[in-house]
Write a sequence for this structure.
């Protein structure tokens, strides 16, 4: 390891220890003293930070086990949460630039278990293909894909590399795709909790985990379609990339997990060895030094020139709600309509803006908030006279799909989950719980429907009528906007809506999107629609901007806890499962199923 790398790691470790100690002391001291100490520590860290130089002969290291989100990470506590400060956009951009960078000779990646979704992997794999097409080679190492299974998407990504190295003791968990759905109706009944939800229509099953004990026929139909579709996509790519028949790949999947020597003999791997052996091999082969891609990305910036045409990227990730965007260890990312409007207002200051790319990774959320963001994007497009290209990530469904309707051109990955054109709503009734607890509620109403959302009783006949009429109105509004934006006859909506979820390749056939592809495809289209000629210099600006130190500090002091997902996992709390439950509060959202692959 180079001296600058050792010094950098040492500074990082010392800095993290100082921050941790400062936070601990803060709970005892509080007040301005804590702020002063923390500011001083971060000032020291900032002054000692150094961007690593890119050697003349470089092998880029990529750790796909790192958590790359669509929105750039929070620098203040990224080290504690296991997240990268860089986004999927930054990763793809760096690989694409490295393809043309004469200093970069090869890529050396590693993967065991990745938090990346399949659609994100498809986007990244396209960049790996671009890198290879420039005459350079890409290598991948794994000490084991998945955890006794659940390594199929990891191997899917690995298959795009020139050489796959496996640790001799490794296993490949290429076991296929499974879909799991939790059902809570019985336990809720024992507690005296009665969910009362209504949907439009039979495929809008987000509340089924609360209201049913098992999969309904439409729900099972949808999950079968999604699971089989994702399975087929991975089979096709793995077979093509590894020069195997599809039947052979299916046979190997049914035999998995596979030991490293089995994977080598069956053509799923190229070499057995340890990571240090692969790195030493590459250093000798290319006479090169290894460089983490994070350090390479630190050398890149969102290029801007005062006179050059500009393309903006607006990343929207999480469930959609009104108010401000936020991140929490339990409820994950939230797209706040107010924050999106503020970001668009800030973008409007760029007079040389020629196009906007909206990168969406959302299972949906509040219908009214989705409508608010949709209108804000339409208004921005008209105001600035710029085209909007939508790039869908893992999810752009329900409210997420609604937001995408503001785009002039919509691009999705084959594995993107989209559609889910439908709505639901209801409430949790606690009347039986109050009885168990010997709690009586008195109620005075001044208006027939004054207590319509009260948790103390079920909907009355008049309340049920009013509530369902509201759902009908929202569904009609949603489908009408889809039909208008996508130039579809309203009569077609019954076949593609009613809450149905589609993979990207199916959505293309139905006219819900315009093309298959990832971020690079969206950028090419945005430049085309924005009148930026091929080869012409242009700038990129990324939103949301990372918050200032003061904003980050204020957020975490207000939260009263560290943003570490790892803390929850250590105590056996599955953040993914908690996220599924939180999704149920929204009225235009995907069902809470979990896909393992």
């Amino acid at each position: 390891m180079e001296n600058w790398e050792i010094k950098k790691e040492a500074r990082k470790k010392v800095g993290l220890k100082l921050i941790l100690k400062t936070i601990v002391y803060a709970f005892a001291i509080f007040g301005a003293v804590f702020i002063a100490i923390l500011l001083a520590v971060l000032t020291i860290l900032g002054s000692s930070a150094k961007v690593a130089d890119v050697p003349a002969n470089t092998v880029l290291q990529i750790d796909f086990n790192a958590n790359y989100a669509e929105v750039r990470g929070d620098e203040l506590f990224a080290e504690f949460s296991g997240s990268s400060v860089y986004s999927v956009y930054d990763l793809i951009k760096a690989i694409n630039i490295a393809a043309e960078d004469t200093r970069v000779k090869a890529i050396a990646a590693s993967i065991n278990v990745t938090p990346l979704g399949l659609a994100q992997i498809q986007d990244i794999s396209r960049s790996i293909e671009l890198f290879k097409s420039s005459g350079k080679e890409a290598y991948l190492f794994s000490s084991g894909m998945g955890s006794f299974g659940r390594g199929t998407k990891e191997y899917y990504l690995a298959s795009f590399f020139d050489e796959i190295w496996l640790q001799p003791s490794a296993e490949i968990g290429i076991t296929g795709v499974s879909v799991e759905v939790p059902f809570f109706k019985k336990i809720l009944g024992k507690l005296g909790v009665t969910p009362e939800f209504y949907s439009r229509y039979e495929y809008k099953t987000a509340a089924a985990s609360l209201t049913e004990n098992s999969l309904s026929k439409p729900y099972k139909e949808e999950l079968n379609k999604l699971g089989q579709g994702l399975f087929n996509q991975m089979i096709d790519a793995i077979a093509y990339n590894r020069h195997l028949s599809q039947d052979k790949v299916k046979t190997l999947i049914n035999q998995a997990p596979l030991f490293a020597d089995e994977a080598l003999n069956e053509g799923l791997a190229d070499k057995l060895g340890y990571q240090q052996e692969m790195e030493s091999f590459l250093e000798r082969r290319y006479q090169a030094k290894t460089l983490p891609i994070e350090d390479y990305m630190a050398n890149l910036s969102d290029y801007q020139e005062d006179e050059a045409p500009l393309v903006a990227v607006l990343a929207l990730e999480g469930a959609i709600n009104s108010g401000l965007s936020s991140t929490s260890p339990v409820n994950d990312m939230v797209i706040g309509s107010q924050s999106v409007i503020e970001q668009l207002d800030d973008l409007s200051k760029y007079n040389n803006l020629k196009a906007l790319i909206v990168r969406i990774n959302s299972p949906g959320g509040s219908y009214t908030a989705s409508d608010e963001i949709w209108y804000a994007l339409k208004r921005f497009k008209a105001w600035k006279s710029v085209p909007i290209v939508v790039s869908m990530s893992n999810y752009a469904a329900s409210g997420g799909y609604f937001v995408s309707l503001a785009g002039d051109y919509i691009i999705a990955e084959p594995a993107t989950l989209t559609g889910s054109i439908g709505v639901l709503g209801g409430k949790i009734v606690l009347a039986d719980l109050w009885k168990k607890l010997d709690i009586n509620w008195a109620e005075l109403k001044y208006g027939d429907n004054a207590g319509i959302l009260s948790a103390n009783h079920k909907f009355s006949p008049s309340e049920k009528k009013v509530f369902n009429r509201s759902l009908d109105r929202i569904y009609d509004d949603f489908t009408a906007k889809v039909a208008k934006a996508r130039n579809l006859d309203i009569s077609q909506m019954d076949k593609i809506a009613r809450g149905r979820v589609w993979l990207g390749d199916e959505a293309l056939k139905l006219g819900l999107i315009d093309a298959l592809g990832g971020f690079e495809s969206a950028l090419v289209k945005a430049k085309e629609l924005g009148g930026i000629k091929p080869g012409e210099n242009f700038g990129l600006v990324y939103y949301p901007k990372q918050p200032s130190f003061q904003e980050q500090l204020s957020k975490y002091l207000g939260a009263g806890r560290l943003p570490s997902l790892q803390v929850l996992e250590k105590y056996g709390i599955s953040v993914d499962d908690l996220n599924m439950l939180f999704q149920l509060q929204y009225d235009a959202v995907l069902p809470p199923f979990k896909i393992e692959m």
Summary: The first helix runs from residue 3 to 29. The chain has a mean pLDDT of 84.
